[in-house]
Amino acid sequence: MRISEFQKSLDKPHSVYVVVSTQDLFLKRVYDLCREQVAESAREFDWSVFDLVKDPVGEVVQTARTLPWVSRRRWVYVRDHAGSGSGLKAYLARPAPRTVLVLETKKRSRAWSRLPRIEFDKKVGPARWLRAWAKQEGYVLEPAAVRAMVELVGDDLARLKMELEKQFLAQWESRKITSGSVAEMTLESREYDVFNLIGAMAKGQSSTALLILNRLFEKGVSFSQILAMLYWTFRRLLVAREMLERGRSFQEVLRTLKIWSYRGQEGEVRRYSPDWIRRVLIRIRETDRACKSGVSEPRFHLERLLVDTCRRGQL
């Protein structure tokens, strides 16, 4: 069920719910709704929170089978990071009638397939969620700004919320959020520039690559930081190509390597030749040594790296 359906069921709740999600903001919303079902004055008696990683299952079951002291129902919220629900099988088969047990997990279990399940509505993806919240707050969020924010931050709603709140404060007067304002303020904007820089290098667009390099310098990024970001990103791209060749899904690659700038760019990543990536990595190491030699200005070596790579661009 969606969270709206869960809210409607709270007048006559089920004895057990399973909430399944990897979105911390969504899990917090469910947690808050459950907590609100017990009056603040009664929470010491009829509201309990457990974590199956550290709390004994026997204590969870004993609490769940205890009659409520003050409220109509006792609410027990259980975090199960292992996703096994070990030791709860007997209780779930015969739950206490005046207790509502909510089991939070980040992955599904066949053992709970018949239990009421609260899940994040996948139709409300991060882009749609951003647009809806901005509209609710009275802001215009440009489509390019939405794409930039998701590419920069990823699909974690808690982090997206933090970044959008910063935009609300910065654009208080204009009430308009653009891709430019996102790139200026988002913590990962430098990584986004590196993402575009690599794309220009692969396509042989030397003028674009040099413009991006200038922008990074203007932001105060040092030559050693730029080289380090290039090396790290190309290393992750090489690992990504190897994972894809082993049959791993693109979404799994994104989650594992946290290369959110490439979200929606599976075709581009697959077009990057592993041999080309290895050659660029060698050139980056050579450039690093040249920069540290002190013979010429580091900026000259960086520009030469970009121009030479663009001449041999592989796309």
Structural class: alpha/beta
Give the helix level as a range of percent: 55-70%
CATH topology of the largest domain: Zinc Finger, Delta Prime, domain 3
- What percent strand? 5-15%
Number of domains: 3
What is the count of DSSP helices, taking H or I runs of 4+ residues?
Answer: 16
Number of DSSP E strands: 7
Major sheet: size, sense and barrel closure? 5 strands, parallel
Description of the molecule:
This protein is an alpha/beta fold. It is built from 16 helices and 7 strands. Helix content is 57%, strand content 10%. The model has no long low-confidence stretch (mean pLDDT 83). Helix 5 links the parallel strand 3 and strand 4. It starts with a helix and ends with a helix. The protein folds into 3 domains: 3-119, P-loop containing nucleotide triphosphate hydrolases (Rossmann fold), CATH 3.40.50.300; 126-185, Helicase, Ruva Protein, domain 3 (Orthogonal Bundle); 189-311, Zinc Finger, Delta Prime, domain 3, CATH 1.20.272.10. The strands form 2 sheets. Strands 2-3-4-1-5 form a 5-stranded parallel sheet, with helices on both faces. The chain is elongated, with a radius of gyration of 25 Å.
What's the layout of helices and strands?
Elements: H1 3-8, E1 16-20, H2 24-36, H3 43-46, E2 47-51, H4 57-64, E3 74-79, H5 89-93, E4 99-105, E5 117-119, H6 126-136, E6 140-141, H7 143-153, H8 157-170, E7 176-177, H9 179-185, H10 189-203, H11 206-218, H12 223-245, H13 250-257, H14 266-271, H15 274-293, H16 298-311
Task: Quickly list its features.
315 residues, alpha/beta, Rossmann fold, Helicase, Ruva Protein, domain 3, Zinc Finger, Delta Prime, domain 3, 3 domains, 5-stranded parallel sheet, two-stranded parallel ribbon, elongated
